[in-house]
Amino acid sequence: MSELALAEARRLVAAAESLAVLTGAGISAESGIPTFRGPGGLWRNFRPEHLATPEAFAQDPRTVWEWYLWRRAAIAAAEPNAGHRALAEYERQQGRCTLITQNVDGLHDRAGSRRILKVHGDLWQERCTGCGHQRRSHALAYPALPPPCPECGAPLRPAVVWFGESLPRVVWAEAERAVAQADVLLVVGTAAQVYPAAGLITRARCAIEVNPTPTPFSSHVAVALAGPAGELLPALLGGGRDKMTTCPPPIPPA
Ligand code: BJW
Ligand code: ZN
Fold first, then answer.
1. HEC profile for 135-198?
2. CA 167 to CA 196: how far, in whole Å?
3. Distance from residue 126's CA to the centre of ligand 2 (Å)
């Protein structure tokens, strides 16, 4: 990653009055959580449509639940990394920052981010397939799978968004508004292959990408920073707004 690209990205962020951030699985990679696609991806042994669809759940709810409980255990044992923390710190110091995440792992919450729009739901929430009852659960195992709803006995499911399902309406509307209003959209750790989330990138006034691997959007964004989020986000966002806008004085000739 070139120093020039980082400097240009820092200049854009420093000049921005409001920032929106779109994160994907890659931001949690340095916490040890596997991504979905690519090397070590969660889905190397499972095709996504086998597990993350309402049809898969209808056909084999036990296997789908086992996959989610396995992921819960991995996430519970993990910690937010420097990338999550840099975003939380930026929000704390600068305000005017909306975090839109495709991740269901809850690591942004644990890092201290407050204004989070979870467009693909939350792995720690469960919803009844019968009566719609919702509950929060940190269970890593259940006596029977799928667990029954305490209200009506119908199967509970993870309250996440599977392929073919609509995104939560209000949350999605807020995400669209945040991107439309932001001076800069920071796109971190997403392969940008899943829609409608990836489509947010095309609506940004100005986008900066942070990803070690090129995506379909890399050549269209204002700056593509090629590298891991845990290193690049502190470098991009750290230091505070004033410091970033101040040029160092020229060195006098000898
Ligand atoms: C690092 C790193 C480091 C590594 N630092 N980076 C338009 C066109 C085509 C298709 C569609 C379309 N609109 C809708 C569709 C259909 C479908 C879709 O998108 N299909 C495509 C796959 C073709 N979309 C939907 O069905 C959506 N619903 C919808 O559109 O509703 C309307 C509708 C209703 C009825 C019928 C049809 C439409 C719903 C999508 C739901 C996605 N759900 C999942 C599962 C969530 C629950 C769970 O977690 O189990 O969301 S799928 C999965 O992919 C998950 C993720 O949030 C999502 C995105 O993945 P992400 O985050 O990009 O991860 P990866 O692994 O792909 O990428 C990781 C990246 O990190 C890589 O680039 C690495 O390089 C990078 N990385 N280390 C920074 N250290
Ligand atoms: Zn119920």
1. EECCCCCCCCCCCECCCCCCEEEEEECCCCCCCCHHHHHHHHHHHHHCCEEEEECCCCCCCCHH
2. 9
3. 11
Q: What are 30-49's pLDDT values in tens digits?
A: 999 999 987 777 665 776 66
- What is the end-to-end Cα distance of the chain in Å, rounded? 32
CA of 254 to the centre of ligand 1 (A): 56
Q: Are 99 and 91 in contact (CB under 8 A)?
A: yes
What pLDDT, on a 0 to 100 scale, did the predictor assign at position 41?
73
- Note the ligand closest to the C-alpha atom of 34: 1
Question: Which ranges of the chain does DSSP label H, i.e. alpha helix?
Answer: 3-15, 48-51, 54-59, 61-76, 82-94, 107-111, 169-181, 200-203, 229-237, 241-245
pLDDT at 172 over 90: yes
Per the annotation, the verdict on 120 as an active-site residue is yes
Using a CB cutoff of 5 Å, list residues around ligand 2, an ion.
128, 130-131, 133, 149, 151-152, 154
pLDDT (tens digit per residue) in 108-158: 999 999 999 999 999 999 999 999 999 999 999 999 999 999 999 999 999
Q: Work out which ligand 1 atom sits closest to the CA atom of 196.
A: 13
Query: Distance between CA 60 and CA 37 in Å, rounded?
Result: 22
pLDDT band per the 50, 70, 90 thresholds, residue 91: very high
